Amino acid sequence: MTPTQVPHILILGGGYVGLYTAWGLRRALPRGRAHITVVEPNPYMTYQPLLPEVAGGELDARSVAVDLSRALKGLDLFRGRLLSLDLAGRTAALESLTGTPSTMSFDHVVLAMGAVSRTFPTPGLAEHGIGFKTLAEAVHVRNQVLGNIAIAAAATDPQERAKALTFVFVGGGYTGVEALCELSDLSRLAVDEYPSLSRSDLRWVLVEALDRVAPEVGPKLSKFTLMQLRERGIDARLETTMTSCVDSQVVLSDGSTFAANTLVWTAGVKPNPVLDDTDVPRGPKGHVNANAKLQVITDDGVPVPGAWAAGDNAQVPDANAEKQPAFYAPNAQNAMRQAKVLARNIAADLDGKPLVEFRHKSLGTLASYGVGRGAAVVLGIELKNRPAWFADRLYHGLAVPTFNRKWHVFTAWTAGSFAKRDLTALPGIEHPRQAFLETFKKK
Fold first, then answer.
1. I want to staple 111 with a disulfide (CB 3.0 to 4.6 A). Which of 133, 154, 305, 309 is the partner?
2. Contact between residue 62 and residue 408 where contact means Cβ atoms under 8 Å apart
3. Which stretches of 351-402 are DSSP H helices?
4. 134 exposed, middle or buried (CB, 10 Å; 0-12, 13-18, 19+)?
């Protein structure tokens, strides 16, 4: 780069890290100081902590989707995906939405491509399971739960009805527990609308390989969470795995077998597999190697010039942890805060100033288990049920990016306090041309 060239900062990913890094650089750098490009195939950033409320019908899907074109005004948004990355040559091979390949050079690159669902080669899982990581998945699961309740109401075969009313979640972290609770609440309200069904017909099963659920909230609140689930009639199977789900027949390691039309997989995440097509140094679990200054580092700990990483696709050392080595958890709280430090460090690097380390002591953990229920640790104080639920809503309502989305979220919650929850299923949106194609069939 010559002294007269404007440095190009390439941000790969438009999630938490990508959006907040771009915002931080836009504020920190004078106009014209750098050219910033964000690469993201989706037109929006999803605020993932509120996906359970989307599935449960408490929020509209668009309330948690931040329009990137509007949010990134003044910056370049490349709608497409990364094909490969050459750190040594400082080039990225990209593909646009139209399928057109291109090569983009950069002076600085930010690896912010997040994570995807971590799956295993369980027989039948690919054919019958669905994750809970994206907005589309949350909407689909909602439609599937409501649709299966309608199928059960119309069924005359007891086995078909039982299969339609059996819902299985595999993975008992707080994300899975939150989603399960919201959907089980939704299902109880939905069956009340059918005279032929009762709440006792519903069967919700949680399968967890560990000896506890929601370990993120701590041992005491984990036990409280398990008690809450079982009091609500949820069949929580601990120290259990799913060995097969071929033809929707769920087989568990404890020997039980049953049929289920709905199988949701929430058993953890892994770094975005597109990293396999890069020359980025990575750790044993596939995360990008990073230091406390959020620089990409080699296996020997040497920073790679112009390369940065944060969020779910990176392992960032946590010096505050008692047991070492330790890394920051892959959650929204850490990702957003890392992004702000990352933006300051890139700006400092451009100006030849010293970098700072990312140090963050967690403010706590929040989990909502449906209206008025939850578990939380806030500044070391444990909260249960309504206080925890209120803290969860207050925090996430304020943390949703942009004033526009905050307004949507808070107004939806306010309206929900006075109106019944929406029980409308929209399965047709997943196959919108079906009705049109029907008109071409021969009579």
1. 309
2. yes
3. 385-399
4. middle
Q: Which of 279, 283, 98, 252 is nearest to 168 (CA)?
A: 252
137-185 tens-digit pLDDT: 999 999 999 999 999 999 999 999 999 999 999 999 989 999 999 999 9
Quickly count: other Cβ atoms within 10 Å of residue 362's Cβ.
16
Radius of gyration of the chain, Cα coordinates, nearest whole angstrom:
23
Tokens matching residue 420: 């019944």
* DSSP secondary structure code for residue 164 in this structure: H
Contact 348, 354 (CB under 8 A): yes
pLDDT in tens, 57-91: 999 999 999 999 999 999 999 999 999 999 999 99
Amino acid letter, 191: V
Q: Measuring CA to CA, which residue among 269, 266, 315 is closest to residue 289?
A: 315
Closest Cα to residue 62, out of 394, 366, 404?
A: 404
Q: Which candidate, 266, 236, 250, places its Cα nearest to that of 127?
A: 250
Residue with tokens 């004033």: 403
What is the rounded distance in angstroms from the CA atom of residue 40 to the CA atom of residue 19?
A: 10
Q: Which tens digit of pLDDT belongs to each residue from 365-413?
A: 999 999 999 999 998 899 999 999 999 999 999 999 999 999 999 999 9
- pLDDT class of 419 with cuts at 50, 70, 90: confident
Round to whole Å and give the CA distance between 294 and 401. Answer: 22
Provide the sign of the torsion angle of the four alpha carbons 225, 227, 232, 236, taken in this order.
Answer: positive
H/E element, 320: none
